[in-house]
Write a structure and sequence with these properties.
With 191 residues, the chain is mainly alpha-helical. The protein is 81% helix and 0% strand. The protein has helices at residues 6-14, 18-52, 55-66, 68-80, 84-92, 103-119, 123-133, 136-143, 145-156, 162-190.
Length: 191
């Protein structure tokens, strides 16, 4: 939107930094929406795993994710998630009738979070992840990753809740207005 909407292009040119305010305001709204959707997402994810893995394989997956290495990588990856690629797509499409998050944006955010999460692991935990990845169940998970990513893409493109839409409509203009007013005060004081 800041690149294509003529009004927003002018605002961005007049007030450098306003796009950053938009993104910083949007990010926690998106994070909260994801948390709200999480129970349903987990149910769909559980169905994916039940369809694709035997009981024995599911026990292996659970054992790995409950191990110190699995728990640590989940925690570190979650902490590294900032949704910057998805947020950029939201910003770029904010005036479109139908928002469409791309698989590339989801993949980029996942890759960034996973890379950051893995980098912060000890060599012992990294070795445990590699060992698990080389098991038949770990290899099967890698083979099914595109199907799992498709599930994530479908979830990313679900309509936001009415509460989230209302929050966007309330918080984005308020943050942008506050930024612009603060910039105007600075400029007025500098004259």
């Amino acid at each position: 939107a800041f690149a294509t909407d003529p009004g927003l292009v002018v605002v961005r040119e007049e007030y450098p930094g306003v796009e950053k305010i938009f993104i910083e305001t949007m990010r926690p709204i998106m994070r909260d929406e994801m948390v709200r959707k999480m129970p349903e997402y987990r149910a769909d994810t559980a169905a994916f795993f039940a369809r694709n893995f035997t009981s024995a394989e599911l026990r292996e997956l659970v054992a790995f994710w409950q191990s110190p290495a699995g728990r640590t990588v989940l925690q570190e990856t979650t902490e590294q998630a900032d949704f910057s690629a998805i947020t950029k797509e939201v910003v770029d499409q904010i005036n479109d009738d139908k928002l469409q998050i791309s698989g590339a944006a989801i993949d980029a955010d996942k890759r960034k979070a996973a890379t950051g999460g893995i980098r912060s692991l000890s060599s012992e935990h990294r070795a445990a992840i590699i060992r698990f990845g080389l098991t038949p169940t770990g290899r099967k998970m890698r083979r099914l990753l595109s199907e799992k990513n498709q599930l994530d893409l479908e979830w990313a493109n679900r309509e936001p809740s009415p509460e989230t839409v209302a929050r966007i409509e309330r918080e984005i203009p308020a943050a942008m207005t506050a930024f612009i007013e603060a910039e105007d005060r600075k400029r007025g004081g500098a004259r």
